[in-house]
Amino acid sequence: NDLPVTTLVAWLLLSHTVPALAFQVALPASRQIGLVRTTTAISGRTGTKLFDEKTLPIKTVLRQSRDWIDEVEYVEDDEVESKGPPIRPDMKYLPRNVMRQHKNFVAIREAGGKELTNDVYIREPNSEVCWFVGKVARVSDVTVEQAISRQWALIETHGSNLRPIELFPSRGSLEIWCAPGDSEMQVAYNDPDLVFTQMKREVEGAEDIKNALIGFQGELYERGEEGFRTWRTEEGRAARPPVQSPNQDDELQAPTDDDMKKIEEMTAGKNLNELYKEQQRREGNPVDD
Question: What are the alphabetically sorted keywords of the record (predicted)?
């Protein structure tokens, strides 16, 4: 039977241990972005859902939280793809692609360690504010530039939906920057020796790389989390002075390697949002608790 004009039925296929569900969405007559509330787990930690695209006249784009999908956005294909080069099917922002690249990241990370990973940040053109959006991994024969280029559409869309106010309006022209894997603490302390590298959308050889050789683990927010950001110059260096830490003589100095190691141990698994707030307090900036 044909569906009513204002109704969209999408079947959600969960992982093998979760039964299939269905939900109904009322589309706005203007065909603008429609938002749907749902509390079905979909993160890489719990399982995945696949949409039956045969019933979808428009493209599905997911906005993720750390453990839940809070909202599902429906965006017309031409609204997304007209702002950049054609997107290959295996890198469109669909649940099956997101979950596959997440699993690839985990597998590569477990086999090769953090040396084969990089932290990923996105910012608007002409802005110093870089938002942490996730991590990439690749096998040793693939460069980080190729890994980013091959997954560009997936990464950019994830960042745009993660920061809908700051980044979504500039989708298609956003800048992607990379830092060494697991360098969040150095970034939070504005380590002057840590320099971001700007990535290019098109890199030679990237299109020939199989998606199994690369991975992307997108940043996911808990409810109320503000997100982790940093300020960087056009050269990728910290745009703000290093955060100082007191030594035993109550004198201020830049954190040593031992300090950084202890800090990493103390903050393992903690919310990056809290690290950001602590950074702002140290710099004397107001923080909303």
Answer: Signal
The average confidence (pLDDT) of the chain is 73
Look up residue 176 and give its two tokens: 């992607």
**Is 202 within 8 Å of 152 (Cβ atoms)?**
no
Q: What is the DSSP string of 57-107?
A: SSEEEEEEBSSSEEEEEEE-HHHHHTTSSPPPGGGSS-HHHHHHHHHHHHH
